[in-house]
Amino acid sequence: MALETQVRAALEPGGALARYWPLYEERHAQVELARDVARTFERGGVLMAEAPTGVGKSVAYLLPAVLHAVETDERVVVATCTKSLQDQLFERDLPAVLEALGVSVPIARLKGKANYLCPRLLEMAEATGDEETEAIDALKQWAAGETFGDLDRFDAPDAEAWRRVRPRVAADPQNCSGAVCRRGRECFWARARRMAGEARITIVNHALLARAAEVEGLLPPYDVLVVDEAHRLEGVLLGQLERSVSRHRIEDLLRQTGSLRGGRRGSGLVARIRSTALPLLVSESTRERIVGDIDMLSKRADEAREDVETLFRQVAEGTGGAGGAGIPKGGSPYGTRKRFRSQHELLGRELQGLQVVLEHCDVFANVLRRSAGAVTLAEAGAPGEELAAELELVSSRWTQVRDDLLTLTEALDPDWVYWKSQSPHSKVAELRGSPVMIGGFARQQLLARARAAVLTSATLSTAGDFSWAADRLGLARGGAPECEVASYPSPFPLHEQMRAYVYDGGADEAVAVSEVVAQLARAAERNALVLFTSHERLKRARARLASLLPPGRTLLAQEVDGPAGLLVERFRKAKGAVLLGVQSLWEGVDFPGETLEMLVVAKLPFSVPDDPIVEARGERLRERGQDPFRADAVPEAVVRFRQGVGRLIRRSDDRGVLVVCDPRLANASYRKPFRASLPVEPELWRDARALAAEAARFLIERDEVAREDV
Ligand code: SF4
Predict the structure, then answer these.
(1) How far apart are CA 665 and CA 685, in angstroms?
(2) Atom of ligand 1 nearest to the CA of 182
(3) Best of 111, 115, 187 to mutate for ligand 1, by most ligand atoms within 8 A of CB?
(4) What is the CATH number of the domain that holds 589?
(5) According to the model, what pLDDT value does residue 550 have?
(6) What is the distance between the alpha carbons of residues 648 and 595, in angstroms, rounded to a whole number?
(7) How far is Cα 615 from Cα 609, in angstroms, rounded to an integer?
(8) Which of 405, 427, 449 is the last residue in one of the domains?
(9) Are residues 157 and 10 in the same domain?
(10) Is any ligand 1 atom within 6 A of the Cβ of residue 450?
(11) What pLDDT digit, counting tens, does each position of 559-574 carry?
(12) What is the DSSP string of 236-247?
């Protein structure tokens, strides 16, 4: 039977899902999506599927994935953006679909290496204080009976001690010498990869998928790929390909390499060469050479530190680009980014500092590699083998940092953009570089590896047009998508559930936002989320709201009152609270029912135009004869805006009001796609108190409707 037909049968009333879930209701959009996914699995090619909240996306792709894996030899990989969504799919949704269908296929979950416990590091872990001792003991007990070794699943007795211990026991991708590791048999990471190799359905996250696009063999070959939250894939791929060199990166290598100075026994690999290999070396000449080498490395470490500091100061102080003053990073006061287009623009004629640091990297790489050979000659058994492997590994990291430093300072690749970034109180800068566009990479290294691929999200289009998202992922030609695209309607009566207002409160965003939020809080004691595009304006609004809000109201500002995760939990439990957020709160957070009824968007979320990547992308689009603002900036902002607005209505019985404090939504020439993304027409208001009264009236009216329905 065709996969599409099987999927249809499982979803219809009386079908497998209805028999398994007593409250199951057939949803037209879910059935359509599941059928389109099944068709893509069978025919091959790429489907971009936009399905809003409430459609039941995960079941719509897991169901055909399971049926397909059962019927064929093909391997399916499902990627979602966060580890918590990955856990939810693996622990709840996928087992439920398997059980409902009454079938069984091998399944696996694979996260990045640093998420797994490293038994070797656990063996060597030393505690500072009673709490850490307790955490390490509990971890050892847990590890003894554990299958996955996934550190997210460990329930630590003391959260603070665990926060300190975790990085010391997590598998370290930079320092794992897997091939000769004595604990390799118990290695959880190796086990997770073996399980993925045997599975027919593997659940991964975007970060791992992006890494696998660069690292051959990290994921077993797959035939079918499903990417959920696909609107975030390009950003994750860009992050994966980005290169950076900082003083900290080199300092980290110096620390690992170690020295015989500053302590009786010395530190790092150098000290281990002396204690592990030196006493066993039979050849006098080899002994002499290695003593000379480790002495030289120890001396060089101090010089290298100074030279690296000098170079990164020079980078910070140099003109570094025609742009003049620093570019605020995402409008934040936390750092600047300055683009440079050539080595001359970055360092002028003074290249001596760079040459010296490159030479240090070469010397450390070569001497460590040579030391690995000497350690092997010492025949120090398993510890010697491990040490030699670590020396090789750190040597190759020195080579890598050298190559990155040279590539970034030369700034030669026309398809890349280069910049230096600097935090406000630092005297040194960091060098960074990124491809300008990653469409070709996404297509060849990721999507083309699968015979069939489904990219799904609640936000992929701009007023039904997928061109922008398709282009960013290498799936468009001549400005039009080259793949199948489909949008599915919301199952919720959104036009009844929400009202939207534009508030024109003057040019000062922080003043306008605090005024309208204070009025909303006075008119209705409901939870309000306020989304900003700038930390600086968030902070100013917070300062004003502290005195404007009615007494007793909880006011939470991201990174001012705590990290986002903690504030989200406090906000969910509060009544009449105001949560001010940036970036991470625009998407991926779920506030159903009364946990959120008032959403305020401070500004339409355009990227900062002089961000180096945005600027470079604009140049490429102009070369292609496109207007960067219309072709790129507007659709990108529309997708972000839709994500933000999507926080408001999460269930069929939710209600809420949206206030956008940006009059451009009412009068800008490019307002149409933003307005088209709202289920209701927004009304323009200039009186914050009247707007708040109207919003409160709507919420009370919806309360009454809800009571009548009950
Ligand atoms: S191979 Fe060894 S060092 Fe690497 S993660 Fe596994 S146990 Fe740790």
Answers:
(1) 12
(2) 2
(3) 187
(4) 3.40.50.300
(5) 96
(6) 10
(7) 6
(8) 427
(9) no
(10) no
(11) 899 888 889 999 999 9
(12) HHHHHH-EEE-H
Q: Is 635 in the pocket of ligand 1 (CB under 6 A)?
A: no
Question: Is the Cβ–Cβ distance between 544 and 530 less than 8 Å?
Answer: no
Give the whole-angstrom CA distance, residue 208 versus residue 223: 17
Residues 581, 686 within the same domain: yes
Q: Which of 470, 487, 504 is the last residue of a domain?
A: 487
- Same domain flag for 658 and 694: yes
326 and 353 both lie in a single domain: yes
Measured from the CB, is residue 169 less than 6 Å from ligand 1?
no
Total domain count for the chain? 4
The answer to whether residues 441 and 474 touch, using CB atoms and an 8 Å cutoff, is yes
pLDDT at 319: 52
Instruction: Check residue 331 and give its pLDDT.
Output: 42
For 104-136, write each residue's pLDDT tens digit. 999 999 999 999 999 989 988 888 888 999 999
- How far lies 575's CA from each of 58, 109, 546, in Å? 31, 38, 17
Burial 66-77 (b: 16+ CB within 10 A, else e): bbbbeeeebbbb
What pLDDT, on the 0 to 100 scale, is given for residue 254?
94
- Do 385 and 468 reside in the same domain of the chain? no
Q: Which of 124, 175, 176 to mutate to test the pocket of ligand 1 (most atoms within 8 A of CB)?
A: 176
- pLDDT at site 375: 82
DSSP alpha helix (H) spans, 319-456: 343-347, 352-377, 381-410, 439-441
> What distance in angstroms lies between residue 120's CA and the mean position of ligand 1's atoms?
6
Does 391 lie in the same domain as 281? yes
Nearest atom within ligand 1 for CA of residue 171: 5
Report CA(176)–ligand 1 centroid distance (Å). Answer: 5
Within-domain flag for 467? yes
Same domain, 89 and 124: no
Residues 419 and 545 in one domain: no
- 463 lies in a domain? yes
CA of 250 to the centre of ligand 1 (A): 23
Contact between 473 and 485 (Cβ < 8 Å): no
**Residue 455: enclosing H or E segment and its boundaries?**
strand 452-457
- Residue-level pLDDT at 173: 78
Residue 264, in any domain of the structure: yes
pLDDT at residue 386 in the model: 83
Ligand 1 pocket mutation, candidates 111, 117, 120, criterion most atoms within 8 A of CB: 120
Q: What is the pLDDT of residue 234?
A: 96
Nearest atom of ligand 1 to the alpha carbon of 118: 8
Which distant-in-sequence residues (6+ apart) come within 8 Å of 421 by Cβ? 329, 335, 336, 337, 338, 429, 430, 432
Q: Is 176 touching ligand 1 by the criterion CB < 6 Å?
A: yes
Ligand 1 atom with least separation from CA of 172 = 5
Residue whose CA is at the smallest distance from ligand 1 atom 1? 178
Verify whether ligand 1 is closer than 6 Å to residue 171 (CB atom). yes
Q: Residue 413 and residue 411: Cα distance in Å, rounded?
A: 6
Does residue 433 lie in a domain region?
Answer: no
CA–centroid distance, residue 648 to ligand 1 (Å) = 44
Closest C-alpha to ligand 1, atom 4: 176
Query: How far, in Å, from the CA of 401 to the mean position of ligand 1?
Result: 23
| Cα(211) to centroid(ligand 1), Å | 19
User: Range of 150's domain?
Assistant: 114-188
* 178 Cβ closer than 6 Å to some ligand 1 atom: yes
Residue 50 CA to ligand 1 centre (angstroms): 40
Whose alpha carbon is nearest atom 8 of ligand 1?
A: 118
Ligand 1 center from residue 190 Cα (angstroms): 8
How would you label 387-411 residue by residue, b for 16+ Cβ within 10 Å and e otherwise? Answer: bbbbbbbbbebbbbbbebbbbbbeb
Residues of the chain with pLDDT under 70: 262-265, 319-334, 709-710
